[in-house]
Specification:
Layout (H helix, E strand, L loop, with lengths): L13 H4 L12 H21 L2 H9 L10 H8 L5 E5 L5 H9 L2 E5 L16 H11 L3 H14 L6 H18 L5 H16 L6 H14 L2 E3 L4 E3 L2 H4 L4 H4 L6 E4 L17 E5 L2 H12 L3 H4 L1 H11 L3 E5 L3 E13 L2 E15 L2 E2 L11 E5 L15 H6 L7 E5 L4 E12 L5 E13 L2 E4 L6 E4 L4 E6 L25 H18 L7 H11 L5 H12 L3 H17 L4 H16 L1
Cofactor: Fe(2+)
InterPro entries: ArAA_hydroxylase, ArAA_hydroxylase_sf, Aro-AA_hydroxylase_C_sf, Aromatic-AA_hydroxylase_C
EC number: 1.14.16.-
Amino acid sequence: MSYKSNHILDKLPKHLKQYIKPQNYDDYTSINQAVWRYVMRKNVDYLSRVAHKSYMDGLQKTGISINHIPNMYGMNRILKEIGWAAVAVDGFIPPSAFMEFQAYNVLVIASDIRQLNHIEYTPAPDIIHEGAGHAPIIANPEYAEYLRRFGEIGCKTISSAKDYELYEAVRHLSIIKEASDTPQEEVDKAENLIEDLQQNMGEPSEMALIRNLHWWTVEYGLIGSIGQPKIYGAGLLSSIGESAWCMTDEVKKTPYSIEAAHTSFDITKPQPQLFVTPDFAFLSQVLEEFANTMALRTGGLKGITKLIHSNALGTAELSTGLQISGVFDRVIEFDNRPSYITTKGKTALSYREKELVGHSTNHHAEGFGSPIGKLKGINLPIEDMSPRDLKAYHIYEGETVSLEFESGVKVTGDIVTGTRNLRGEIILITFENCTVTYKTELLFQPAWGLYHMAVGENVFSAFNGPADLNSFDLVSHEFTETTIKAKKTKETTQLELLYKQIRDFREGTNTTISRNKVFQEVKTNYAKDWLLSIELYELAINNGDEEFALEIVKHLEMVKLENPKLGHLIDDGLALVDQSLAG
């Protein structure tokens, strides 16, 4: 097993566990640790003034250290106290899986960390974003419940085939953009593809809409008043660039509402507008308002149509509670309602999320089809018929019957048996020697074996995924590509060693290191590196070595002249040291 389990992780289904990977803490270099420390020191200094108060409280409650990249085992020991856990994954995982993890109170953390040259922002999910962004806020009980509920509802939303194409494109961009040697033309090509996909998505799916809600709350949410909002979104909390940008008047602030579901975003650019919720409880109110629009709660013809367009495993639940899980491929409609539905390939039948005995994918390997609705000329739905009614209409074991539905679908055959739900209602009728027709079309013939007719007046609910997770083999996801590890050269290996020496000196594990010697090597061989000089400056100031500190500042001024884009990062790093001294 690639992770250390606990009572929360033990509850995860197998298909989610396939995404978990080992954190491999020893793989983090001293440069990685320095990047974490810089971002966290900068964030804590700035966010203590602009983040929601839960953020600072949460840093302590979740055991997030400013000086060290979090160890997942250590985080889990603390997170379980608030009923949560964390797992490491490889970059972006499919949105439905990401949300399902949340439904189990599990925080998904991309364990890689951004490179130094992407210290302000990376499109790739990393441990700064996940660990320092998401984790602290879940210490707030109201927000934690919102996150769990969001996952519970979100994993039931129905996607379109284009959603998955967009997910793959975003994952690809995040991987190549964070890789050290990707040609710019390849990045441009990937960004253009995402732009093209976003502009040609057609009618947005439920997944696309709830992904918008997730973006404008969990990732880029503001809270409080429009005039003086605070930050709670992880994308803002983990970006030292955007957390400052979002507080300026250049970013439009809008009251949060369900309209956010219909507001798209561009992952490749800073956000020009953000939504402000008055409090965390209001987030749940809007989420429920959105859920009321989903096929999960509305069912009907629209729900079946969404399942067909998804071309993915989904479930239709009938008014009797019978659940049909498979890939839906056809609906015959009558009076704007589904009157006959079919699936292709492996299908399973369930009741209350438990597979019915004798109705696994082995029994329905080639698909499933059934009429829905009322019988012609009979106002009483089959599910509401008493035993006396059923006998009167010859819907009885051993009877040969011809059932004609309002839609024109006709089922003729010998009744073998009926399956009832816990309320005593018939949910399934099994026939032999059965013929099913619709007008002149043959839908089922006796040579195909037993015919199982689902009973239900209407489609009560439609949602993503199977009713019973054990009905299908869901442990089959394979990434088309994985995150690219930076190739180490002799120069980078030596630079990592220098960072480690200074880290060891600061932490007292090796105080014999000559900081001046390290500085001279940085100046001579790593003229573009600036972060190690900031760390040397901090040590010089703390030791009262003003002459050494001044020499470092002069060097950093030269670095700024050569690389003006680094100016504000260097200035902020120096200011942090000076502030801590003054404090």
